[in-house]
Amino acid sequence: MKCLFEITTYLTKKKLPSSRSEDSDDIVHDVEDARIGLQQVYDALILGKERVVDRFLRQYKTSAFTERITASGETALMVAIKGGHGHIIKKLVSLTPPELLAFKEDFGNTALHVVAELDNVKTAQLLVNKNHELLNICNRREILPIHLAAIRGHREMTSYLFSVGMKDEIHSSLLKDADGEKLVFDLVAARFCDLALQLFYHNPELVFDLELRSLLMELLADNPSAFPSGTHYSIWESFFYNC
Q: How far apart (Å, rounded) are the C-alpha atoms in residues 57 and 175?
């Protein structure tokens, strides 16, 4: 018992080590240098933990921009867009090489598809300004980002993608027959008929698509105000009213 008492007394008198020992910095560095897991990265992107995202970028280097974070093959940028933390989204867009912004997940969607579906116009502007070709990239279902925006009824996003898409009429997918026809259907279904009429103006061949014209006539019958008569669209508006 005396021996046990002496040991206990010695231990209680002995100075305890500081909470920040000489080795604590080494421990911090060890944690920082440890290979970060993709689940950690996903959580950080969703929760907006920029320090963890920075570790991921530092450790994975260029492959960070194409690393598939989720089971469906989404990249860090795509997950960040869904997380909605603007500072992280902006950082990832600025650091990603333009050509890698076109990277697709398993369903063929690019980051712009994700943005279009979620109606994040500011991020769409960042992406398009860095890689304009994103506007013309279809997913596996042959759907463009603007199709998704129209299908979801996102007026502002659809208008933005339409305006920037029509700036380059020579290369714009909006003027290709299949993409143009589908877009007209989507625009009319969303009641974005002013945009549909603009598309007819730039792609007159669509006017003679009988199925498309039938859809428009059906819409006019159900909703006469869909094409405002006070809006000036020259010969195209007259065509629809007199058809």
A: 39
Domains: count for the chain: 2
Query: Is residue 164 domain-shared with residue 185, that is, in the same domain?
Result: yes
The boundaries of the domain holding residue 73 are 33-96
Maximum distance among all alpha carbons in the chain?
112
Distance CA 193, CA 223 (A): 11
- How does pLDDT run along the chain (243 residues), one tens digit per residue? 545 445 444 444 444 444 444 443 333 344 455 679 999 999 999 999 999 999 999 999 999 999 999 999 999 999 999 999 999 999 999 999 999 999 999 999 999 999 999 999 999 999 999 999 999 999 999 999 999 999 999 999 999 999 998 887 656 777 676 778 889 889 988 989 889 888 888 877 776 676 777 776 776 666 665 555 544 444 445 555 554
pTM of the model: 0.78
Do residues 120 and 227 share a domain?
yes
Residues 151, 39 share a domain: no
Q: Which helix (H) or strand (E) holds 187?
A: helix 177-189
List own/partner pairs for 50-54 with CB under 8 A and 24 or more apart.
50/87, 50/88, 50/91, 53/80, 53/88, 53/91, 53/92
